[in-house]
TrEMBL record:
NCBIfam families: sufS. It catalyses: (sulfur carrier)-H + L-cysteine = (sulfur carrier)-SH + L-alanine. One of its GO terms (molecular function) is pyridoxal phosphate binding. One of its GO terms (biological process) is cysteine metabolic process. It comes from Actinoplanes missouriensis (strain ATCC 14538 / DSM 43046 / CBS 188.64 / JCM 3121 / NBRC 102363 / NCIMB 12654 / NRRL B-3342 / UNCC 431). This is cysteine desulfurase.
Length: 409
């Protein structure tokens, strides 16, 4: 289909509702996206007519479930340019995917004192805490990139930060708070030079940008379904197959084994090795349907729409008295996420007044408290956009912020 935002919105039943007597203005897609009827229908149909466990039965329902589940894996692999579906591991979210890497890659590399892991100050807690825990277990040292005043990743100390002692570099591709799309080309090159693994948190970039993992320069990436029109409870770890094949399991149980005896176990090849137990079958099928929807629209078209909406929002918010925008000031190098503060007004008060007007934003530290600390604020208000966001909704946000100013003087 050609990209027409008004036509796209007709696929999302939730936009028919009102909030507090106002039309719903949903500006919290970086938190979780809304779902089109095409995804909801596929999931409901599976539960109603095809429900069975995967990779365990020879009966018709089990076979149909397995085909749908593995078909979703294949379409997701194609969506991100993976060399093979076997490079796609289903997890429950990005958090689990990153914890899997921290556990399994850390064990594979036999980290110890003297080894270093590099992250950044821009990370979601999901890409901070697992590495802190790994360092506590192994004695490795955690180091990090800073953030510039303009909201960019500070790569000025790249060569002194990523050294031959560095074993893993794990950074965010697109910030969930600042909207910054990080150019990781130099980080990737430096990581290769010193023999370090490069992990990318792509939770915000895969839903919004055309991504080809073979061109990205990373060894492993994580993303999640509920930010890209899919359901909650399903995420993806992509990794080079040769690397996944060297990593030990994260969880033990059914489906991830080759043989089990009372004296020992051998493990299945990836991706099954990392998918112990009954997986989120319907959720994976729903994510496959979401990928189909995005593919039909075209990720280039989705990205162009969001660039236009982001430019419009930056212009609109800059015209509201007392609003401070965090992150890059222009749409170049920025995704559809804009965090801001209103002088003299706590973000929670901003969020409550906007909600009373039907405008849904997120307030708080967005699971990225170090970012708030970097800009010396306790919290931020965040408006985040997606393929269904319109300029009328941005106008509603700006009017709502004018109302915030009136209420708080």
């Amino acid at each position: 289909m050609s990209f027409d935002v008004e036509q796209v919105r007709k696929d999302f039943p939730i936009f028919e509702r009102e909030v507090n007597g106002h039309p719903l203005v949903y500006l919290d897609s970086a938190n979780t996206s809304q779902k089109p009827v095409q995804v909801l229908d596929v999931m409901r149909a599976h539960q109603e007519r095809y429900n069975g466990n995967v990779s365990r039965s020879v009966h018709t329902l089990g076979t149909e479930s397995t085909e749908a589940y593995e078909g979703a894996r294949a379409r997701i692999a194609a969506f991100i340019g993976a060399a093979s579906p076997d490079e796609v591991v289903f997890t429950k979210n990005s958090t689990e995917a990153l914890n899997l890497v921290a556990h399994s890659a850390g064990q594979m590399l036999k980290l110890g004192p003297g080894d270093e892991i590099v992250i950044s100050e821009m990370e979601h807690h999901s890409n901070i805490v697992p590495w802190q825990l790994l360092c506590e277990r192994t004695g490795a040292t955690l180091r990090w990139f800073g953030i510039t005043d303009e909201g960019w990743l500070d790569q000025s100390s790249l060569e002194s930060l990523i050294t031959p002692r560095t074993k893993i570099v794990s950074v965010v591709h697109m910030s969930n708070v600042l909207g910054t799309i990080n150019d990781i080309s130099e980080i990737s090159a430096r990581a290769r030079d010193v023999g370090a693994l490069l992990v990318l948190d792509c939770s915000q970039s895969v839903p919004h940008l055309p991504i080809n993992v073979r061109e990205l320069g990373a060894d492993l990436i994580a993303f999640t379904g509920h930010k890209m029109l899919g359901p909650t409870g399903i995420g993806v770890l992509w990794g080079r197959f040769d690397l996944l094949s060297q990593m030990p399991p994260f969880l033990g149980g059914g489906s991830m084994i080759e043989t089990v005896t009372m004296t020992g176990t051998t493990y299945a090849a990836p991706p099954a090795r990392f998918e112990a137990g009954t997986p989120p079958i319907t959720e994976a099928i729903g994510l496959g349907a979401a990928v189909d929807y995005l593919s039909e629209l075209g990720m280039d078209a989705v990205h162009r729409h969001e660039q236009a909406i982001t430019a419009y929002a930056l212009d609109a918010l800059s015209g509201v008295t007392g609003v401070r925008i965090f992150g890059p000031a222009t749409p170049e190098g920025r995704g559809g996420t804009v965090s801001f503060g209103v002088d003299g007004v706590h973000p929670h008060d901003v969020g409550q007044i906007l909600d009373a007007l039907g405008v849904e934003v997120r307030v708080g530290h967005h699971c990225a408290r170090p970012v708030c600390s970097r800009f010396s604020v306790p919290a931020m208000t965040r408006a985040s956009f997606y393929l269904y966001t319109t300029t009328d909704e941005i106008d509603a946000l700006a009017r709502g912020l004018d109302q915030v100013r009136k209420v708080f003087g």
